[in-house]
Amino acid sequence: MIDFGVGSITSQMDIDSKPNHIAIIMDGNGRWAKNKSLPRVAGHRAGVKTLRKLIEHAVRIDLSTLTAYAFSRENWQRPKKEVDLLMDLFMTALQSEVKDLHENNVCLKFIGDKAAFSDKLQETIVQSEALTSTNSGLNLNIAANYSGRWDITQATQAIATEIALGNLNAEDVNESLVNSKVCLTENNDPDLFIRTGGERRISNYFLWQLAYTELYFTDILWPDFVPEELDKAIEWFASRQRRFGKTSEQIDESKN
Length: 256
Ligand code: IPE
Ligand code: IPE
Ligand code: MG
Description:
Layout: E1 21-25, H1 29-35, H2 40-60, E2 65-72, H3 80-103, E3 107-111, H4 119-132, E4 139-146, H5 148-164, H6 175-181, E5 192-195, E6 214-217, H7 227-238, H8 248-255
Parallel strand pairs: 1-2, 1-5, 2-4, 3-4, 5-6
Bound molecules: 3-methylbut-3-enyl trihydrogen diphosphate (IPE) (2 copies) and magnesium ion (MG).
One 3-methylbut-3-enyl trihydrogen diphosphate binds next to helix 1.
């Protein structure tokens, strides 16, 4: 699957200016299809191909973690026909790609409330995660039936349960504890967020984890988001000064 090309833009960059973790909202499949007078599902199929190419590119440029939003909890509200087609597409894409992902040392994880999926899809997810769990290359997270508010709520529930059981006191609840209960604890917060499709919103993607993430929005519809567009976003990221509340002078000084 992976075409190991050379000369990527990121290989020339200062190591500090490269994002370790990129989180993407893959938006615009429906409009892409509409522009071509095709059914929406054709846009979703094209979107899967785009994701595949992007994963190849992420491996090529040695990205540590890529997290892609495939289906939000709110997306269940779409017409049943579209939801069913999306579920079929997840299943076929997973079945056809997992071997290649494994051969390319990709560690695959799903983020979100998996209990809502069919037994068969849940089983395929568990098997795919198990197959790739010890791989040390790209960490690929697929956010499916995910929502940022759900994530914070499930973390709160886990903490409340520990308090109720007497394992924890309310005073022990702090940011690092909450951080350990929300999704992505092992992969850390995203450095760069990318949303395709022209909307300037978060749409219930990571709410806690995006606190200091650099936000990049592009009008390009997801199926047209070629690897060079990822390079552009990474280049833009390199031009940002991340201050985390400090002054730019403090940041400059710490680099000297
Ligand atoms: C994103 O594309 C894919 C999913 C939400 C599953 P959309 O289907 O939202 O495409 P637009 O926004 O309608 O163009
Ligand atoms: C966000 O896209 C979710 C995914 C891409 C999976 P939506 O298309 O669902 O977002 P809204 O409804 O335009 O905010
Ligand atoms: Mg959309």
